[in-house]
Specification:
The structure holds two protein chains of two kinds. Chain A is mainly α. A two-stranded antiparallel ribbon of chain A has the order 1-2. Chain B is 82% helix and 2% strand. Chain B contains eleven helices and two strands; from the N terminus they run ααααααααββααα. Chain B has a two-stranded antiparallel sheet with strand order 1-2. Chain B is globular. Classes of the chains: A mainly alpha, B mainly alpha. Chains A and B meet through strand 2, helix 1, helix 2, helix 3 and helix 4 of A and helix 1, helix 2, helix 3, helix 4 and helix 5 of B.
């Protein structure tokens, strides 16, 4: 249904945005409260020199990344999923794949009403599972920490940024999605591999490459789509 | 301190349960079968177990430097290990690593202000963007499906492709690694040495994930055991992580 201002959202979608904003605002308040309360309670003034130096180095880049991430990831997790995932984090390594696996299994798109429901369920369950495992981790924090610290091999295997869980995840996940639409995957993957191998310093910019490759894959998809339509 | 952590846990769980319950109710209204919804929850839940483990371990590591409550907030509410480490590092670079309470406050402010653009956008602009997406989805569902697939390919290409590149760099010794007679290891290129770090084991782990998943696929096809589908991803991931211990040991001495 559309009117002059465009599409009319269902009552459920309107409520999702309303409550999504309430939860987001609450999370932002909670996030900002941490440094604010620390400064107020302990009467501490931030060291402004290091603050500005850090802020100038971090904020412009990460603000840009944060915005691009919403544009890039939200079509894959739906609106409820977006509000949830952008508070609980870990998008590329968990929430987005979790939602995509679920939607693929059900054979629905994230933009459909059914997809909205299923992706929200997927992201919510994923967040709950992580929190429960974090909770278990907290209870077991001392035994686990000492076990991992005592064993450099385990520390390396489970390292979040340079360990072996992420390659295991994307190996298994790659089969599911590349087999479905390998033509979209070939060029971006080959380009990424070539770029890293030829310009090894670009490895530090891996995060920024995700939206670039997404856009490239979308362009390839559009070309394929137009060609198929013209054939019909 | 415990109260702060309890608050964060309740906040994250509360928000997730809230959205979950709403979605299930809406699903019933739309006539989605409970079986489909249960299967969505099971597949996402089992999928999320293995990738959660490094997040927990990162929290433990981060807790050692910035304290448990802050580590909890930073890793369970938004944020990621690499971001937190970079943000904290940028501030500490200036101070030469000395941590006083004012510097700690500066680190916290930079970490907090740097990460909030996504949620801020969600607060003010996301609804309009989402409307556009739904419009596209209704007008042309085939294109909308292809668009999401293509966007996801960006993640797969970079996150998966990086380990292929790392493996190539490691196996082809692009870092120009030499081991002197006394056992000292040196590299002719620091950038390649960084790229190649753990590259052998990571590439083999990636390939193990691929092979295990293919084996699962073949078994499911042959035996028609549909129930196995839920386990294919998590078990392949866990299997590849276990195998990575073997690869790590094979190449640990080489690095």
């Amino acid at each position: 249904m559309t009117n002059k201002q465009g599409l009319m959202l269902s009552e459920y979608d309107e409520a999702t945005h309303r409550w999504g904003r309430v939860w987001t605002a609450a999370a932002l308040v909670a996030l900002i409260a941490v440094p604010l309360l620390f400064c107020l309670i302990y009467g501490v003034t931030p060291a402004w020199g290091p603050f500005w130096q850090g802020a100038v180095a971090i904020i412009p880049m990460y603000w840009a990344i944060g915005l691009i991430e919403v544009f890039n990831y939200s079509p894959m997790v739906g609106s409820g999923g977006t509000y949830l995932a952008f508070i609980t984090g870990n998008l590329a390594n968990m929430k987005v794949p979790a939602a995509q696996v679920t939607l693929k299994k059900a054979g629905v798109s994230a933009a459909s009403e059914e997809g909205e429901v299923l992706s929200t369920i997927a992201v919510a369950v994923s967040s709950i599972v992580t929190t429960l495992i974090l909770l278990a981790g907290l209870v077991l924090v001392i035994p686990i920490a000492s076990l991992i610290n005592a064993d450099p091999m385990l520390r390396q295997v489970f390292d979040l940024s340079s360990g072996h869980v992420i390659p295991a995840l994307f190996g298994a996940l790659g089969v599911v999605f590349i087999s479905k639409s390998w033509r979209l995957a070939v060029i971006p993957t080959v380009l990424v591999v070539a770029l890293f191998v030829l310009v090894p310093a670009s490895f530090d910019a891996a995060g920024i490459l995700i939206p670039v490759m997404s856009v490239l894959a979308v362009l390839i998809a559009r070309l394929m789509y137009n060609r198929n339509r013209n054939r019909k | 301190m415990k109260r702060k952590i309890c608050f964060i846990i309740l906040f994250v769980l509360g928000q997730s349960v809230w959205f979950l319950v709403r979605a299930v109710r809406r699903g019933r209204e739309l006539g989605i079968s409970p079986k489909v919804m249960r299967s969505a929850a099971v597949s996402s839940g089992t999928f999320s177990i293995v990738p959660s483990v490094p997040i927990v371990l990162a929290m433990i590591a981060l807790a050692a430097t910035i304290g448990t409550p802050l580590a909890w907030i930073r890793l369970s509410v938004i944020g990621s290990m690499s971001y937190e480490t970079i943000a904290a590092g940028k501030v500490l670079e200036v101070t030469g690593g000395d941590i006083t309470s004012s510097i700690f406050a500066s680190v916290m402010w930079v970490m907090t202000l740097g990460i909030i653009s996504g949620p801020l956008f969600n607060l003010f602009g996301f609804k309009r963007y989402q409307k556009k997406l739904i419009e596209v989805g209704r007008k042309d569902p085939a294109w909308s499906n292809m668009l999401t697939d293509a966007l996801f390919m960006g993640i797969i290409a970079v996150m998966g492709g990086q380990f292929v590149a790392k493996g190539i760099a490691a196996f082809a010794n692009l870092g120009g690694k030499t081991v002197a007679a006394d056992g000292t290891v040196s590299f002719s290129s620091a950038a390649y040495a960084r790229l190649a770090q753990s590259g052998e084991a990571q590439l083999l782990t990636l390939l193990s994930g691929v092979v295990l998943m293919l084996v699962f696929g073949a078994v499911i096809k042959l035996t028609k055991a549909k129930w196995l589908e839920n386990f294919a991803l998590p078990v392949s991931m866990a299997g590849a992580v276990l195998l990575s211990i073997v690869y790590h040991n094979m190449f640990a001495g080489v690095m």
